Amino acid sequence: MELAITGTSEQNRLINEKSPYLIQHADNPVDWYPWGDEAFKKAEDENKPILVSIGYSTCHWCHVMADESFSDPAIADIMNQDFVNIKIDREERPDLDQIYISSVSAMRGSAGWPLNVFLTPDAKPFFGGTYFPAKKRFGMPSWKEVLTAVAREWKSDKDRKKLLDSAEGITDALKQYLNGGLLHKGSTIPDKKAVRDTAKSFYESHDSVYGGFSSAPKFPMPVVLDFLLFYHCLAQTEDRQADEKVEALDIAVHTMRKMARGGIFDHVGGGFHRYSTDEYWHVPHFEKMLYDNSQLITVYLKAYDITGYDEFAATARQSLEYVFRNMTHPLGGFYSAQDADSPEFDLAAGKDNKSGNGRKAEGAYYAWRKTEIDSVLDKHSAAVVSYHYDIRSQGNAQNDAFGEFTGKNILRETGSIKETAQHFGLSRQEVRTTLESAGQKLLEARSMRPAPQTDDKIITEWNSLMISALAQAGRVLGDERYRIAAKKAVDFINASLFSGKGELYRRWRGGECGIAGLASDYAFFVQALLDMYEAFEDREYMENAVELGDRMLDRFYDSENGGFFITAPDHDPRLIFRAKDFMDGVLPAAGSVAAMNCIRLFRLTQEKRFLEAARRTFIAAEERINRQPQSAPLLIAALGSYYNDHK
To answer: Which residues of the chain have pLDDT under 50?
Structure first.
């Protein structure tokens, strides 16, 4: 095993990387390689399969597998002897992540992170999965058993032939799914009714009791909420859809209220956690992502603009304050994420609690014992907070499947301000004042706890989403701070993430930029520039958007078949193919954002090349739109905009 010697400790070659996730694994006894020529040459020279392990720095189960398996010298010996091991940060390389997570999903029916995929020396996948325990449990084989079985088959000429044939078949299927098949069968632009059909599909899947569009786990899905708000506004001009425009708005408002009042929202520090593990939005997975919060800020501001409901403006403001306080680089960019795990700490005792003794646990920073609330607040304030946020002596997290929050409380609003005021015989303003003052005291007290780790890399795509949120905030709320922060972030990207030749980079950290920009980086920054222009009417933003929009077309648009590739032609020679992405998930697909950008750019410039790129993107995705409308709400919103402009 080749290890770098740093000080008195052995570290593998990941210590030289910029990604916080990769650096987290630099002390592993596993001989990790970053993705690149060195690893592939070793695999080719030694005829070894490649293990690609993909995750991100704030991933709870990634931490678990690292602690259980990747830190175990005996398991590391097997990995080092029989495989070439590559670590990938999915946030730096979503192009690789999309290909390999799609392959595991096809093989096993589902996929997630940590993602562990076995490849041939020419990067084609033949087997994979997600988390594997160090010892056999949960009905899953141990990681050692998986490694041993794959190595045994690879060493057998007969079995290796089967693995190679399987890799070819999987790769061909992936090409059809991600770069062919449904994407190239379209012959006409989808009918306008696809927009209405998509809205109806969300009406049908909506949880009328708790909000959201699925059972547990529940993700915020801001792209769906944004589509419903868009559809409401679109339907304003069509009287025959009057009932539907009300229904679209009602569904969005209902879900947004449930989310903002639930435990998925941080009522002390602001900002939304990753997702809810239950159907009630109560017990979250506690990591906080910049891309979630930036999109949700934008959606809550749009909802406030439409409805005038102050609660939506308040949620947006609290989340903006969280970003300013915890996620902002002094130069103006925004950090990527905060971890779900942090060391346990007993605030009332003033020391590590006896059971954990400082061990890291999910949500340790955010959950409260009632004794902690009572020790921080005066008796009256503690009573009001406990009533309003459902604080109980025995804890309120009954929906905690693993018992991690026994005796602890995850703040959630179980009643309204009005109900709390009636219960205590106070005015609503007195309740608001008490909650605000108590919140500041709880925030100050919470800051005494060991904080979750912050992934401080700055990603162009996600920063662009935050710029869009700040532009919306500046326009809707009229606070000059938001405009200044948005401008500073744009200036940061222009100064730090462009090459001298005008090429955009994806990641900046520690004064260095790296990784050639993907379609999402270009598309989201074009969107941010357009949002800045619309909010503040500075023509420089429009001119920059048009210039970068042209570059986006040149580098990523498929002029032969329509649609947008995720990567530029010269991005990475080790990619097994160039993929496209029309499916909107927790992040909008780059192709969807690019199509909407093209419509907006056409409106501003009347340049037909933009309109034609959007039109041919819709044609390329015709069958996907018709068969799976819920998978592409932003693309269908772009289609609605197209038809609205061309009645």
So the answer is: 1-8, 181-184, 240, 352-356
| Start-end of H helices in 187-264 | 193-205, 222-235, 242-261
Rounded Cα gap, residues 41 and 34, in angstroms: 13
What span, in angstroms and rounded, lies between the C-alpha atoms of 567 and 478?
38
Single out the residue of 337, 340, 289, 329 nearest to residue 509, CA to CA. Answer: 329
Helix (H, G, I), strand (E, B) or coil at 85: strand
Ramachandran bin of 282, using left for φ above 0, alpha for ψ from -120 to 50, beta for the remaining angles? alpha
pLDDT at 5: 36
**φ, ψ for residue 436 (rounded to 5)?**
-65, -45
**How far is CA 572 from each of CA 19, 278, 406, 522, rounded to the nearest angstrom?**
18, 40, 48, 17
Of 89, 70, 88, nearest in space to 31 by CA: 70
Can you list the domains of the chain with their CATH numbers? 4-179 (3.40.30.10), 193-340+455-645 (1.50.10.10), 344-451 (no CATH)
604, 542 Cβ separation under 8 angstroms = yes
Tens digits of per-residue pLDDT, 279-302? Answer: 999 999 999 999 999 999 999 999
In the block, tokens 């992502």 appear at 289
What is the strand order of the sheet 454-455 is part of? 288-289, 337-338, 454-455
User: Contact 263/408 with Cβ under 8 angstroms?
Assistant: no
* Cα–Cα distance measured from residue 273 to residue 462, given in angstroms and rounded to the nearest whole number: 16
Q: What average pLDDT does the structure give for the chain?
A: 92
CB 319 within 8 A of CB 294: no
Q: What CA–CA distance (Å, rounded) separates 410 from 264?
A: 9
pLDDT at 7: 34
pLDDT tens by residue, 380-410: 999 999 999 999 999 998 777 677 899 999 9
Beta strands in 395-451 (DSSP E): none
Contact 21, 91 (CB under 8 A): yes
Say what the pLDDT of residue 8 is: 35
Length of the chain (residues): 647
What secondary structure letter does DSSP report for 452?
A: P
pLDDT at 2: 45
Backbone dihedral region for residue 181 (phi beyond 0: left; psi -120 to 50: alpha; all else: beta): left
Paired tokens of 121: 């020396």
Q: What is the C-alpha to C-alpha distance for residues 453 and 287, in angstroms, rounded to an integer? A: 10
Residues 281, 497: Cα–Cα separation, whole Å? 37
Q: Which amino acid is at 427?
A: S
pLDDT at 241: 55
Residue 246, pLDDT score:
78
**φ, ψ (nearest 5 deg) of residue 129:** -170, -165
- Give rounded-to-5 percent helix, strand, coil for the chain: 55, 10, 35
Q: Is 130 exposed, middle or buried (0-12, 13-18, 19+ CB in 10 A)?
A: buried
Provide φ and ψ at 287, rounded to 5°.
Answer: -65, 150
Q: What is the pLDDT of residue 363?
A: 93
For the record, the structure tokens of 47 come out as: 């005829």
Q: How far is CA 116 from CA 53, 111, 125, 315, in A?
A: 4, 10, 10, 37
Give the count of beta carbons closer than 10 Å to the beta carbon of residue 645. Answer: 11
Residue the block writes with tokens 């998986």: 146
Amino acid identity of residue 161, one-letter, is K
